[in-house]
């Protein structure tokens, strides 16, 4: 789960990290009087590259601020990470402008290789870490930290030295790293980043931007984090699917897919593209899909106006194909399916499932195997018109 | 012969009194698996399908002599369950649970380092040696006893591969689902090593997916250490970057972990790579025919 910059900064502050004072503005808010200028106005969307897209601006007066805010609210920012549709700006963060001497990158990740956490740091601040990794991999410093010993002072010393920081910044860096570390472990983060972490001309560390992502598997243990989710940032169908316990990802094609199992769902997409079609979504109904869940999945697919054909690919293991077939038929009947539905059933009670579909009288088209199903789906859902 | 489990494996079900635990205990018993005990804290003294339930894994092991456990507990308790099993001396721990926090698994994996326990999973379908023992949730009836080992990150694609082989009358020695989480126990390399050493196994099917670099490391291992024919498939060729595709570990980030990269590494290693998922069986058949061992891989054939 992703959160906004202002939320990440608030969380860091709770863990003792000295973040700059900020004022959060929503569309309906009036701009408070006590703002000191110059200040930086930052669009709050879940994406990097906001500066380049015009979402971060320096303003020198209340008038400039009013004008910039008016322009930014409701606007759609398109960055390298948002895709062509972009993200609409609903909130702005105002922070004091600082005279910056140097910018650094500081990140914390789970370390799968060494079994702990990994600090990533670079003197090339302000760039995305992927970009630094690509263009200047030698300038990324990696410090694994074992969970048995935790973060120690020497880790911080080595890090500041590698970054070429003055040793006078050690204490500030230690406070920041200790806070980040504790936050990461207590809240099950999957990524925490301060980028840029800036050094001001008067020798202070300034947390210019912060980004935190939580491990979706960890969220169940931290119900308080759910209030940080911004529904504006989520795909409506993905949100609805998540609530129903389905794994759904919206894609750009015309063939709606419903599959059990993540691997088979990906493989089904591969199959479709192999035959020249494009999936409208990834949808894994899970290993233990019930009639009800299958119906919910169908509703989500049908609510997608781009979907011209539905492809169902079920390998019944624990879930029985006859039950899956009943779910499909129930959904088709209740929801009045007007588009072709291609169904491939294999595994437990597959014969019975296929018979039910055949004898239903509904416009469900059975397919004898995966490739036949994919070919048929491409045929019906082709994008020629 | 087979890898990790056989007809003598004695199994404890952790979380046997839950809905999933109960259901799959019955399924495993039907398949012939020697389930000898269950464990659920506070439910000691009761029984499920005639199987005695104990409060702890160590008590269950002490009473029955079991050295293998399978875990069906909720995600918040699963890390504890794995650690408890390891400390109770379980040689093999199969964790079916999906949704365990990554940091929990990092701690668990670190703890298991240097211990004798092998962990399979989490977020996996388990392991099956056809005709002998099934530990997990896969539909046993699609399997045929035979000579091909299967390793996979995906559950339903494992079934797909088994089904495609069985339809061609090619049996399986052991099929293992290693799970879809980024931090898991048994990996491709270790499983490949076990299959290479197992005299019963003549060929290997390996099914990977986007995310991480395990397939690349497996390719390296295949190149240097595997003499048996390997057929491989990588799913997620068309998955968009930066999106988690159902499995917590299935994500392309920073241009790393793509299906193309993995398929390429495997081709270079000498493995036969299926382009599409319905070609897995055919690709394996071609590979074992090429190695001159096709007849020996057929179901019901005795070693010549």
TrEMBL record, chain A:
<dbReference type="InterPro" id="IPR005811">
    <property type="entry name" value="SUCC_ACL_C"/>
</dbReference>
<keyword id="KW-0479">Metal-binding</keyword>
<keyword id="KW-0436">Ligase</keyword>
<dbReference type="InterPro" id="IPR005809">
    <property type="entry name" value="Succ_CoA_ligase-like_bsu"/>
</dbReference>
<keyword id="KW-0547">Nucleotide-binding</keyword>
<dbReference type="GO" id="GO:0006099">
    <property type="term" value="P:tricarboxylic acid cycle"/>
</dbReference>
<dbReference type="InterPro" id="IPR016102">
    <property type="entry name" value="Succinyl-CoA_synth-like"/>
</dbReference>
<feature type="binding site">
    <location>
        <position position="260"/>
    </location>
    <ligand>
        <name>substrate</name>
    </ligand>
</feature>
<dbReference type="InterPro" id="IPR013650">
    <property type="entry name" value="ATP-grasp_succ-CoA_synth-type"/>
</dbReference>
<comment type="subunit">
    <text>Heterotetramer of two alpha and two beta subunits.</text>
</comment>
<dbReference type="InterPro" id="IPR017866">
    <property type="entry name" value="Succ-CoA_synthase_bsu_CS"/>
</dbReference>
<dbReference type="GO" id="GO:0000287">
    <property type="term" value="F:magnesium ion binding"/>
</dbReference>
<feature type="domain" description="ATP-grasp">
    <location>
        <begin position="9"/>
        <end position="51"/>
    </location>
</feature>
<comment type="pathway">
    <text>Carbohydrate metabolism; tricarboxylic acid cycle; succinate from succinyl-CoA (ligase route): step 1/1.</text>
</comment>
<dbReference type="Pfam" id="PF00549">
    <property type="entry name" value="Ligase_CoA"/>
</dbReference>
<dbReference type="GO" id="GO:0042709">
    <property type="term" value="C:succinate-CoA ligase complex"/>
</dbReference>
<feature type="binding site">
    <location>
        <position position="42"/>
    </location>
    <ligand>
        <name>ATP</name>
    </ligand>
</feature>
<dbReference type="Pfam" id="PF08442">
    <property type="entry name" value="ATP-grasp_2"/>
</dbReference>
<keyword id="KW-0816">Tricarboxylic acid cycle</keyword>
<comment type="similarity">
    <text>Belongs to the succinate/malate CoA ligase beta subunit family.</text>
</comment>
<feature type="binding site">
    <location>
        <begin position="49"/>
        <end position="51"/>
    </location>
    <ligand>
        <name>ATP</name>
    </ligand>
</feature>
<dbReference type="GO" id="GO:0005524">
    <property type="term" value="F:ATP binding"/>
</dbReference>
TrEMBL record, chain B:
<feature type="binding site">
    <location>
        <position position="43"/>
    </location>
    <ligand>
        <name>CoA</name>
    </ligand>
</feature>
<keyword id="KW-0816">Tricarboxylic acid cycle</keyword>
<comment type="subunit">
    <text>Heterotetramer of two alpha and two beta subunits.</text>
</comment>
<dbReference type="GO" id="GO:0006099">
    <property type="term" value="P:tricarboxylic acid cycle"/>
</dbReference>
<dbReference type="GO" id="GO:0004775">
    <property type="term" value="F:succinate-CoA ligase (ADP-forming) activity"/>
</dbReference>
<feature type="binding site">
    <location>
        <begin position="17"/>
        <end position="20"/>
    </location>
    <ligand>
        <name>CoA</name>
    </ligand>
</feature>
<dbReference type="GO" id="GO:0009361">
    <property type="term" value="C:succinate-CoA ligase complex (ADP-forming)"/>
</dbReference>
<comment type="similarity">
    <text>Belongs to the succinate/malate CoA ligase alpha subunit family.</text>
</comment>
<dbReference type="GO" id="GO:0000166">
    <property type="term" value="F:nucleotide binding"/>
</dbReference>
<protein>
    <recommendedName>
        <fullName>Succinate--CoA ligase [ADP-forming] subunit alpha</fullName>
        <ecNumber>6.2.1.5</ecNumber>
    </recommendedName>
</protein>
<feature type="binding site">
    <location>
        <position position="159"/>
    </location>
    <ligand>
        <name>substrate</name>
    </ligand>
</feature>
<comment type="pathway">
    <text>Carbohydrate metabolism; tricarboxylic acid cycle; succinate from succinyl-CoA (ligase route): step 1/1.</text>
</comment>
<dbReference type="InterPro" id="IPR005811">
    <property type="entry name" value="SUCC_ACL_C"/>
</dbReference>
<dbReference type="Pfam" id="PF02629">
    <property type="entry name" value="CoA_binding"/>
</dbReference>
<keyword id="KW-0547">Nucleotide-binding</keyword>
<dbReference type="GO" id="GO:0004776">
    <property type="term" value="F:succinate-CoA ligase (GDP-forming) activity"/>
</dbReference>
<feature type="active site" description="Tele-phosphohistidine intermediate">
    <location>
        <position position="247"/>
    </location>
</feature>
<dbReference type="InterPro" id="IPR033847">
    <property type="entry name" value="Citrt_syn/SCS-alpha_CS"/>
</dbReference>
<dbReference type="InterPro" id="IPR036291">
    <property type="entry name" value="NAD(P)-bd_dom_sf"/>
</dbReference>
<feature type="binding site">
    <location>
        <begin position="96"/>
        <end position="98"/>
    </location>
    <ligand>
        <name>CoA</name>
    </ligand>
</feature>
<dbReference type="InterPro" id="IPR016102">
    <property type="entry name" value="Succinyl-CoA_synth-like"/>
</dbReference>
<dbReference type="Pfam" id="PF00549">
    <property type="entry name" value="Ligase_CoA"/>
</dbReference>
């Amino acid at each position: 789960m992703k959160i906004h910059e202002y939320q990440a900064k608030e969380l860091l502050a709770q863990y003792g990290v000295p973040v700059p004072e900020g004022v959060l503005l929503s569309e309906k808010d009036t701009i408070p009087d006590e703002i000191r200028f110059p200040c930086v106005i930052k669009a709050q969307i879940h994406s990097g590259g906001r500066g380049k897209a015009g979402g971060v601006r320096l303003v020198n007066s209340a008038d400039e601020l009013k004008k910039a805010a008016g322009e930014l609210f409701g606007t759609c920012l398109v960055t390298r990470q948002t895709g062509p549709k972009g993200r609409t700006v609903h909130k702005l963060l105002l922070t004091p402008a600082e005279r910056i001497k140097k910018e650094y990158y500081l990140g914390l990740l789970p370390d799968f290789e060494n079994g702990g956490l990994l600090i990533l740091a670079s003197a090339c601040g302000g760039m995305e870490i992927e970009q630094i990794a690509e263009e200047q991999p030698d300038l990324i410093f990696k410090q694994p930290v074992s969970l048995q010993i935790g973060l120690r002072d020497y880790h911080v010393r080595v890090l500041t030295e590698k970054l070429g920081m003055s040793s006078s910044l050690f204490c500030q860096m230690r406070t920041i790293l200790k806070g980040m570390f504790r936050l990461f472990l207590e809240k099950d983060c999957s990524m925490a980043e301060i980028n840029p972490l800036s050094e001001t001309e008067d020798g202070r560390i300034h947390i210019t931007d912060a980004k935190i992502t939580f491990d979706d598997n960890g969220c169940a243990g931290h119900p308080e984090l759910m209030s940080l989710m911004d529904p504006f940032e989520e795909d409506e169908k993905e949100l609805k699917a998540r609530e129903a316990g389905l794994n759904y990802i919206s894609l750009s094609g015309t063939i709606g897919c419903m599959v059990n199992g993540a691997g088979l769902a990906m493989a089904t997409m591969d199959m479709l593209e192999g035959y020249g079609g494009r999936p409208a979504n990834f949808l894994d109904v899970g290993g233990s899909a019930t009639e009800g869940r299958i119906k919910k999945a169908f509703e989500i697919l049908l609510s997608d106006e781009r979907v011209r054909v539905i492809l169902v690919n079920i390998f019944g293991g624990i879930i029985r194909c006859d039950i899956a077939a009943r779910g499909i038929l129930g959904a088709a009947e209740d929801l009045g399916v007007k588009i072709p539905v291609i169904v491939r059933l294999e595994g437990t009670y597959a014969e019975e499932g296929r018979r039910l579909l055949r004898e239903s009288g509904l416009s469900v088209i059975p397919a004898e195997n995966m490739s036949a199903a994919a070919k048929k789906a491409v045929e019906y859902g082709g994008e020629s018109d | 012969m087979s890898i990790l489990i056989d007809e003598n494996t004695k199994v404890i079900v952790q979380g046997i009194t839950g809905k999933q635990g109960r259901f799959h205990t019955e399924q495993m018993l039907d398949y012939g698996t020697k389930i000898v005990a269950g464990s659920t804290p506070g439910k000691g003294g009761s029984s499920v399908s005639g199987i005695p339930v104990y409060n702890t894994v160590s008590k269950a092991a002490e009473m029955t002599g079991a050295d293998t456990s399978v875990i069906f507990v909720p995600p918040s308790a699963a890390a504890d369950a794995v650690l408890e099993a390891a400390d109770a001396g379980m040689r093999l721990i199969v964790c079916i649970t999906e949704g365990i926090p990554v940091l929990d698994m990092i701690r668990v994996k670190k703890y298991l380092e240097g211990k004798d326990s092998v962990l399979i999973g989490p977020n996996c379908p388990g392991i099956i040696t056809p005709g002998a023992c099934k530990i997990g949730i896969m539909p046993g009836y699609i399997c045929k006893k035979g000579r091909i080992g299967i390793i996979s990150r995906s559950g339903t694609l494992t079934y797909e591969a088994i089904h495609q082989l069985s339809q061609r009358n090619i049996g399986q020695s052991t099929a293992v689902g290693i799970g879809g989480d980024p931090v898991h126990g048994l990996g491709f390399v270790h499983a490949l090593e076990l299959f290479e050493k197992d005299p019963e196994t003549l060929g290997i099917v390996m099914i990977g997916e986007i995310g991480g670099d395990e397939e690349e490391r497996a390719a390296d291992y295949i190149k240097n250490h595997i003499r048996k024919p390997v057929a491989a498939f990588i799913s997620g060729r068309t998955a968009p970057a930066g999106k988690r595709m159902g499995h917590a570990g299935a994500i392309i980030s920073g241009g790393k972990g793509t299906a193309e990269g993995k398929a390429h590494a495997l081709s270079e290693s000498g493995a036969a790579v299926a382009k599409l998922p319905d070609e897995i069986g055919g690709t394996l058949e071609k590979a074992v025919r090429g190695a001159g061992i096709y007849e020996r891989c057929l179901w019901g054939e005795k070693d010549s």
